[in-house]
Amino acid sequence: QKAVLPTPKVGDAIGTLSIPKLKKTINIVEGTGSKELKLGVGHYIGSVLPGVSDNSVLAGHRDSVFRNLGNLKIGDLMTVRTSYGTFVYEVHKIRIVNANNRTVIVPTTDAILTLSTCYPFRFIGNAPKRYIVQAGLVIGEPIA
């Protein structure tokens, strides 16, 4: 039985992202415009949906949904719940890149969840860098 993936429109809710370490559950919304990021974590439209065998990219504001993202460590778990499945990811890479670094959104062969937020966390104005957390799918069947 093949999972039927939704084709969300910008602004649609896709599911929730739970990060136990941060004691947070955040709505995931399609799109990364300022309107969408006010509603929760934005799903980068050019990337696959969470749970798919590729790189699913989520972006959020450092002063709201991803306020304590810097507290995550390698090995911490995150859960994405959607209408088409529940997927548990384990953090395996944390890095800081320039804001214009496009390697964050490159396709991958595995089901990867990439979280991106502005950095430094306490920077005023448009931050010059991005804080990137990457996690691999550990529980849940990846959708091809």
> How many helices?
1
Describe the strand arrangement of the main beta sheet, using strand numbers. 1-2-3-4-7-8-6-5
Helix share bin: under 10%
**The biggest beta sheet, please?**
8 strands, mixed, barrel
Q: Determine the N-to-C terminus distance.
A: 12 Å
Order of helices and strands: EEHEEEEEE
The pLDDT mean sits at 93
Portion of residues in beta strands equals 35-45%
How many runs of DSSP E, i.e. beta strands?
8
Question: What would you call the shape?
Answer: globular
Which structural class best describes the helix and strand composition? Answer: mainly beta
Uncertain regions spanning at least 5 consecutive residues = none
Radius of gyration: 14 Å
Written description of the protein model:
By secondary structure, the protein is mainly β. The longest helix has 6 residues, at 34-39. The protein has an eight-stranded mixed beta barrel with strand order 1-2-3-4-7-8-6-5. It has one helix and eight strands, in the order E-E-H-E-E-E-E-E-E. It has one helix at residues 34-39; strands at 13-19, 24-30, 41-43, 55-59, 77-82, 85-98, 112-119, 129-139. The two termini are 12 Å apart.
Topology:
Layout: E1 13-19, E2 24-30, H1 34-39, E3 41-43, E4 55-59, E5 77-82, E6 85-98, E7 112-119, E8 129-139
Parallel strand pairs: 2-3, 4-7
Antiparallel strand pairs: 1-2, 1-5, 3-4, 5-6, 6-8, 7-8
